[in-house]
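Need residues for this backbone.
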């Protein structure tokens, strides 16, 4: 687990912001977000005592949250060893991209007549460029993730949004293993801008074609790098 003091501080902040929702679902959402941002890297063993104490939730609640995240393929339970953040295989990465093509492509195909609500995409592109200028490569990755979540949000489907959040959280598990986040994020900031400009011009089909090439290139680069890292 990362710096112990930093982990505990962040989880206590999350506890203070707890909403009126199922405590187990809230706990799972907090852990999902923290796993996605790299607070718990792949392969990390999650301590029930430490996390439960920081979030001020019961052992049973935490185990239910672990069960939910295991179902989402973010965690794995190892008999007599405990619960760990999952380390994905190359086959998992390839499947993630299959699902991304289905969801993101469908979101663009579902668009009606322009203009489209592009505020989230514009913000993500702006944040990506700013992070590049300041050499904040993890934040560049976060902006890229936000851009693609924004594409799916154009479909106006809460269920699709939730599915995409899980897919992108899995993808972050791959990014956290790579040694050179700049190489895997920087080239796509400009391509996000290209998709955005195509949508601003009212050409949803053109944006879909740009996105398809983008995902092909991204998958090829990431699979090669990840396979080398694992092997």
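Answer:
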């Amino acid at each position: 687990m990362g710096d112990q003091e930093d982990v505990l501080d962040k989880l206590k902040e999350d506890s203070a912001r707890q909403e009126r929702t199922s405590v187990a679902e809230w706990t799972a959402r907090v852990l999902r977000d923290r796993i996605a941002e790299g607070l718990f890297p792949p392969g990390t063993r999650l301590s029930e005592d430490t996390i439960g104490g920081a979030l001020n939730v019961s052992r049973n609640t935490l185990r239910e949250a672990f069960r939910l995240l295991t179902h989402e393929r973010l965690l794995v339970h190892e008999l007599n060893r405990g619960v760990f953040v999952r380390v994905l295989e190359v086959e998992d990465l390839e499947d993630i991209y299959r699902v991304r093509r289905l969801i993101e492509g469908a979101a663009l195909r579902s668009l009606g007549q322009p203009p489209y609500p592009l505020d989230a995409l514009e913000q993500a592109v702006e944040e990506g460029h700013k992070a590049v200028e300041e050499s904040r490569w993890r934040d560049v990755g976060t902006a890229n993730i936000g851009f693609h979540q924004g594409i799916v949000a154009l479909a106006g489907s809460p269920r699709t949004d939730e599915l995409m959040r899980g897919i992108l959280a899995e993808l972050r598990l791959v990014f956290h293993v790579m040694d050179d986040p700049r190489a895997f994020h920087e080239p796509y900031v400009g391509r996000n801008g290209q998709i955005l400009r195509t949508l601003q011009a009212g050409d949803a089909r053109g944006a879909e074609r740009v996105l398809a090439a983008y995902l092909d290139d991204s998958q090829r680069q990431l699979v090669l790098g990840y396979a080398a890292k694992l092997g």
